[in-house]
Amino acid sequence: MTTCKAAWLVLRANMFQLLVYLLATGVMAAMLGIGIGLASDGDDQTSAYEPPAASLAIIDRDSAGGHATGAALRSYLSFSADIVDIEDSTQAIQDAIATDYVDVIVIVPQGYTASFTKAARTQGTLPALSLAGSGNGTDSTGSAAARMLTIRINGFLGSLKSAMLADQDASLAQAAATVAKARAESGQSVQVAAAAPSHAHGSSATGSLTPSGRVFAATLATMLYPLMLNIAFIVIVIITAFNKPTTMRRVGVSAEPGHAIWAQVLLVCCGASAVVWLCCIGVAIACSAVCQGGLAGIGWRPLLFSLIGTFVFSLTVSALGFLIGQCRVSTAAMNGIVNTVTLASAFLSGAWLPQWLMPSSLQAFARLLPGWWYVDGVYEAFGGQGSAMTGTPDIGRWAAATGFMALFALAFIAVGLAVSRFAARRK
User: What are the annotated GO cellular component locations (predicted)?
Assistant: First the structure.
C-alpha cells in the first residue's frame, strides 16, 4: 500500500497538466466525432443523386452503314445528355475540346455498323469507338459527367451486342429499339446509388442506425487520441518517478519483493487509465445524448461491446506507457515519443480518416499498430463503418479486434519487463 500511495502522490503532483491535456484533447475529439457521425448520417439520408447532364457530340462517318450506329446512340443518350452538333473537321473537334464546348465527342468510323454486327453475332470483340472528351478541364463536375457518359455508352454497346446475339436476324437499328424498349419497361433510372462502401465487409448497403448511435461510435473512435495521450502521460510520469536512482535505491533495500512493487505501480497506472476511460466514455455519451435518437438510439449491445473494447484499449495503452517508461530516457524525449506514436496511431488507425479509404499498402502497415484494432473494434460493435453501420454487432470481428489489442498489451508488458531487467543489470 505504501507503493500505491507514493504512485498516487506522483500523479497528484502532475494533476494540473493532466487535466489540461484531458480537457483539450477530449473537446477536440468530441467535436471531430460529432462531425464525422453526422456526416455519415447525412450520407445515409441520401439514397440517390442525379448526376449532372453531360454534353455529347456524335460524329457519324459510317455512311456505308446508313448511320445506324450514330442514330442509335443519339436516340438512347438523348434522355441523359445534351446532344450538340459540331462540324466534322479536325479544327472544329480540337476547338470543342479546348473550349470545353462538349464533355464527350463520339466518332463513329466508316464501316463500324458492319464490324459491330459481325462481332456481335460471332461473340467476337466489339470494335472500338473513337472517344474524345474535356475531362482534363478544371471543372470536376464536367469531368465526372464525362466519365459517367462514357460508362453509359459502353453499357449501351454491351446491351446492343446481347440483343443482336439473341436475335440473329435483327439489324443494329432493330436491336437498339429492343434495348430502348427493355429499358423503358424495366423503369431503369439514370440515378446512381450513393451508398458508401463498408470498410471491412465490402458492402454498400446502408444501415439503420440512429444519428445518436453514429455520433457515439464516431466520437468513441476519435477518443483514441485523448486515450493514448493522457494514459501514456500518466503511466510515464509514474514509471519515470520510480526509475529515479534515489527511488531505485530505496526499492532495492525494501523488504518487499521487486515484482510486488512493480505490480502495485501497474495497478495504480491501470486505475488511472480507468478514470481517463470513464471521462472519455462520458464525453461520448453526452455527445450522443443531444443528437436525434438519444441514448436509446445507441442500443445496449453495441454500447456494451464498444465499452469493453475501449477499456481493453486503455489497458493496452497503459502497457505501452510502461514499456516507454522503462527506456529511462529524459522526460522531454518521452513526451516526444508519446506525441509521435499517438499522432501516427490516430492518423493510421482510421479515427480521422476512414479505414476503407486508405491504400492497401497503408492498411497493411496500420494493422501493426493497436490503434487500428481499437477503431476496427469500435465500428464492428456497431456492425460496420460510415453509412454501412447497422447497429448489430459483428461479434466475431469485434472479438478478433479486441483479442489483438490484448495481445499487444501482453507483448508491451513482456518487452517492458525485459528492458527493465536489462537496464538494471547494466547498472
Answer: membrane
Nearest to 231 by CA among 308, 137, 324: 324
Q: Running DSSP on this structure, what letter comes out for residue 170?
A: -
Contacts of 351 (CB under 8 A, 6+ apart): 221, 222, 224, 225, 371, 375
* pTM exceeds 0.85 for this model: no
Strands 192-193 vs 48-49: parallel, antiparallel or unpaired: antiparallel
Contacts of 306 (CB under 8 A, 6+ apart): 216, 217, 220, 377, 378, 381, 382
- Strand 104-108 to 54-60 pairing: parallel
Place of cell 513482456: 414
Asked whether residue 223 falls in the same domain as residue 318, the answer is yes
Q: How far apart are CA 215 and CA 32, in angstroms?
A: 10
Range of the domain at 269: 2-45+200-426
Looking at the fold, whether 272 and 314 belong to one and the same domain comes out as yes
Q: Residue 244: left if φ>0, alpha if ψ -120 to 50, beta else—which one?
A: beta
Could you count the other beta carbons within 10 Å of the beta carbon of residue 80?
16
- Between CA 219 and CA 222 the distance in angstroms is 5
166, 193, 220: which is the final residue of a domain?
193
pLDDT tens string 64-83: 888 888 888 888 888 778 88
- In eight-state DSSP terms, residue 352 is S
Residues 273-291 pLDDT 10s: 888 888 888 888 888 887 7
Q: Nearest to residue 8, comparing CAs of 267, 229, 335?
A: 267
- Domain count across the chain: 2
pLDDT at 371 over 80: yes
